[in-house]
Amino acid sequence: xxxxxxxxxxxxxAEDLAQILKAKILDVDLKRFPDDELYVRIQDDVKNKxxxxxxxxxxxxxxxxxxxxxxxxxxxxxxxxxxxxPYYGYARQDTKFKEGEAISAKALAKLISINAxxxxxxxxxxxxxxxxxxxxxxxxxxxxxxAKYLIEKKIDMVLAPDxxxxxxxxxxxxxxxxxxxxxxKTRIDGNTIEIKPKNLDSENKNVAIIDDIVSTGGTMxxxxxxxxxxxxxxxxxxxTHGLFAGNAIEKLTTAGCTQIISxxxxxxxxxxxxxxxxxxxxx
Length: 283
Ligand code: R5P
Fold this sequence. Notes:
By secondary structure, this protein is an alpha/beta fold.
């Protein structure tokens, strides 16, 4: 039997996983000291047990909680620790763009690897960041589940916000059984940039734009506005990781978005798609 600990950021994902894997959720005592430092104690006996710890590494306090949960498991003699990171925060800085910068994706991976035997994450920003972990690391995708959710929305075409993300749009379109394309920027003159689907016409179409992350919403808002001005009927925004920083939701809504959909790697009221079934296949 598997034993599962759900960190604060990922309790419902842990519960869903426990149900699918017929595993037991363990009790953890989590308290804040008066100075706000975190205290962690796994209340069940985990000696010689195989343990799954589920925790998104966003926002920052959840990272410390993950480290402490891993440490508690190790110190208590767990036989195997599988760390499931639904949203691997800090993954976007995956190289040194300027001399002197930290490579956060690598730094975090090294620390997580210390007390882990296996790592699983979902739609990492770049697949090669899995190599930063010094323990076996695997990824799964929320795209198939997102696509299944979109079927009932009568989508005519799936778009990637840029060429680099087109594989994701293609994968979704195959499940929905519709066209796919990507948004391309063309400079018309010194002051004008046109953004439109590279090959397809969006007029009178129901369109879904799919991306791995929506953070400020800037990328999506630009595409929604253009599609609407080109006559698109409905524009759905779908992503795996809904960070929705600042006024992202307002930006998307003002731009004319019909519905915002994300998975539950980061839990919000837009989490319409459960990620646990995809994760369970890797355990
Ligand atoms: C970029 O490479 C990512 O795939 C997303 O397109 C990006 O993180 C979205 O950011 P924002 O919502 O701030 O435009």
